[in-house]
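Repro case for the chain-ordering regression, as requested:
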Amino acid sequence: GIRLEDELVHIQQFLAAAEIDYMLEGNPKLTNTSLITENVLSMCIKEAVTNVVKHSGAKSCSILIEPSRTDLVIKVKDDGTGIPGNDLYFKGHGLQGMRERLEFVNGCMDIVRNGGTTIVIKVPNAFH
Ligand code: ATP
Ligand code: MG
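-- result from build under test --
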C-alpha cells in the first residue's frame, strides 16, 4: 500500500507538469489511521486530482488535511469549471469507485460545488 505522504509527492509532480498551482494544508503524516484506510485515501486523492487535471481547467488545486478527535477529513479543492449538472457518477467510474472504496473502510464522500469543485472525504480514526 502507499502512504499518503508518498502519494502527495507524485501528486505535486503531476500538478506541476499540468501547470496547476498546488497547495497543501495540514500534516500528511497520518498517525490515527489504519493502513488499509490510508491506502484507500491515497487512491481517492489520486483519482480526485486526476479529475482536476482531466476535467476542471483549474488554475490551482489545494489539498486540506483536517484531523479531529474522531475522524479525518481530506478536501481536494479546485477553482475550475465545476462538475456539470448531470455528469456526476455517470460518465466514468472514478467517483463511483471512490465512493465504494470509502464505504468499505466506513468512510464517505461529498461533492461540493463552489464555483470549482471540492471533494470532501471523511474516514474514521483507527483509535479514539
Ligand atoms: P474515469 O475516472 O473512469 O477515468 P471520468 O474521470 O470521466 O472517468 P469520474 O471520475 O467518475 O469519471 O468523473 C465523472 C465526471 O465528473 C467527469 O467525466 C467530469 O465531467 C466530471 N468531473 C469530475 N471531477 C471534476 C472536476 N474536478 N472538475 C470538473 N468536472 C469534474
Ligand atoms: Mg475520473
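Ordering looks correct now. The two ends are 23 Å apart (CA to CA).
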